[in-house]
UniProtKB/TrEMBL annotation:
It comes from the Bacteria. Transmembrane segments: none annotated. Belongs to the sigma-70 factor family. ECF subfamily. Residues 138-187 form the RNA polymerase sigma factor 70 region 4 type domain. SUPFAM superfamilies: Sigma2 domain of RNA polymerase sigma factors, Sigma3 and sigma4 domains of RNA polymerase sigma factors. It comes from Pseudonocardia hispaniensis. Residues 20-39 are annotated as: Disordered. Residues 45-111 form the RNA polymerase sigma-70 region domain. InterPro entries: RNA_pol_sigma-70-like (IPR039425), RNA_pol_sigma-70_dom (IPR014284), RNA_pol_sigma-E_actinobac (IPR014325), RNA_pol_sigma70_r2 (IPR007627), RNA_pol_sigma70_r4_t2 (IPR013249), RNA_pol_sigma_r2 (IPR013325), RNA_pol_sigma_r3/r4-like (IPR013324), WH-like_DNA-bd_sf (IPR036388). Gene3D superfamilies: 1.10.1740.10, Winged helix-like DNA-binding domain superfamily/Winged helix DNA-binding domain (1.10.10.10). This is SigE family RNA polymerase sigma factor.
Length: 201
């Protein structure tokens, strides 16, 4: 598969997951619109963005239970800093950075402990989304799981999170140039994995 083909495959897979995870949850009541728009609250952000942040974390740490914990910690931190944030966009930026940093901490602890055991239970919504992927999309998700953490972060934030290079740079603490080169290396690695060839990191 060509480099452009691999990028399209990654983009299509993660965009498909984003759409699946953005579906309304039929188990939740549909909110009625107020007569006048009320200011956004922490509860609004939690309801509207939690699932996508959990998926983001799952794609970074490969473990649904841990991903849930990472997102809970991110919202806890947001609650502590709520009064200092100017608007919803700043709050979402804070949450993305917190999820990336929390995921990095998990991976550091996991490398140190060397005792990672996959969980027996998975988040039902996430499992449902993964089950709805085609075999080709599943292969892309499996290839993403082999990437070094920074490469995976960049691709997930770009194609699942829908972030620009500048936003990815802010979320990960690296330069825009590094974002671009990291994405290129990551796509090359995904291509090699999907072709069944040995990879170099």
């Amino acid at each position: 598969m060509s480099a452009g083909g691999i990028e399209r495959a990654v983009e299509q897979t993660l965009s498909r997951l984003r759409r699946l995870d953005s579906r309304p949850d039929s188990s939740l009541p549909v909110p009625t619109a107020p007569a006048q728009p009320a200011p956004r609250t922490l509860a609004d952000l939690y309801r509207d963005h939690r699932m996508q942040l959990v998926r983001l974390a799952i794609l970074l740490v490969d473990e649904p239970g841990t991903a849930e914990d990472v997102v809970q910690e991110a919202f806890t931190g947001l609650h502590r800093n709520w009064s200092g944030l100017r608007d919803e966009s700043a709050a979402l930026g804070y949450l993305r950075i917190a999820v990336v940093n929390g995921s990095r901490s998990v991976l550091r602890r996991r490398r140190t402990a060397r005792d990672y055991v996959p969980p027996h239970q998975v988040n039902a919504r996430s499992a449902e989304s993964l089950a709805m992927l085609s075999a080709e999309h599943q292969a892309v998700v499996d290839a993403l799981a082999t990437l070094p953490p920074r490469q995976r972060e960049v691709l997930v934030l770009r194609y699942y999170g829908g972030l620009s290079e500048a936003e990815i740079a802010d979320a990960t603490g690296i330069s825009r140039g590094t974002v671009k080169s990291t994405a290129s290396r990551a796509l090359d690695t995904v291509a090699k994995v999907m072709a069944g060839r040995p990879t170099r990191r």
